[in-house]
């Protein structure tokens, strides 16, 4: 065993003794020279011109099932049979079994050189030499990813205060002073009259007589009261209490001198005193007058461009500051005070759902680059959007700089310097897209030829938000999803797998003008390639829509349209990510162990 270990080290060291400068440089230059030539050769390759006896349909085509085939169409079984029974298989087996084993000599020149390299390893590739220095180089590469998600929809209602009011019947006590008496004669009697200014009920009344002369004990009757007038005085009209008067009513009374005997001559003298203004009457009325009072109040007028049942109230703000407003109604002032005269209420009618963007939102290396609305509500609000994230991936490598030469120590530095090429992934993806399109075309036999045909799919969401079968995430945690159909659950899985294109949203059930249920529509495709070509090619490049929300148009792409699509401008990242993830690459650890076993076996043979 002690002899085996040095030999193993010698073998490894012998490889390093080669002229590393020229070999590395030659290999690196050659790699850069041929970079990208493979895809160009594939695109321009014409097998009929280059391969003698080329047959486009050999017997072996039975093993090819297309890019979406799930099995090997019997290739493995036929190969096993030929290996066991065919002449070629037998010859290879016999050669392998009868081949003599190689015996390694410890004194071989390449092993001697290996020992020398081992002894000088630290000075050759380490960081102890005077002319060598180790450095790390880094490179960032940015990749764009497109995804779909629901937006947060905030809508607003306004409440505005308008001032209105009501009339209220009231009774007021008012005092009227009437001096505009008129005087006339009825025979020997003197008639005096005055007009009532307002309707009401008399609480009290008095007549004030002012005169400079004797009124000859005239007897008068006025407002249900009999009294005598001699000199100036104020007479209480007790009989007037309780009288109901109307506005404009004429109140009249009579008087006659000599205690009512009407002497005539004396009445003429008194009449002259009254008409000349030397004697005056003043009537004072205290009345209960009916009136009405205007009581102002606020009525709130609400304006909502949507159904409030669809949303959740998230906040209220005052849009017109409060204060006191005043006015006059029928000559009477009024005032009204409010803390706020107008409000703006914010409702969330749709919560944000990151949908297929969740992985990029969670990745700190990804930033939002662009956003584009996929479809709008009836009120013009964006409900669903396409988002493009730019994600950074860093490549770092270790190099050793010795004099003017650069050595790559870990195999990653060349990537970090020149960048990682996606030519292969893009080329394979484009070829796969064309192959899938060709398969669709061939299946139609030239009749109404279309490729990448999809199907219209729908899901429902209660308008009040209690059940949303169109959610892009959180399907395992929402009890409201129990009522979702199997088709809706399958649609959710297709959305997760990026097989759909969102078309729109519409009200599917309405009662008395109120929407009770909404539906969303999608075009669902059989593969990511179909989804990419439809969304980016048909819609993005050719600007052919997917129809309306109620009637999605998920038709296939015609041959003419297919020829117009620029496949080199399609972002096929979603597809060739799956392609690269599905590669069957042998485990590096297993390969290392296999090599160790083979070397150890050879060393054991050499020691015998």
TrEMBL record:
Disulfide bonds, paired cysteine numbers: 256-262
One Pfam family here: F_T4SS_TraN
Signal peptide location: 1-18
InterPro entries (UniProt xref): TraN_Ftype (IPR014121)
Entry keyword set: Plasmid, Signal
Annotated protein name in UniProt: Conjugative transfer: aggregate stability
Gene: traN
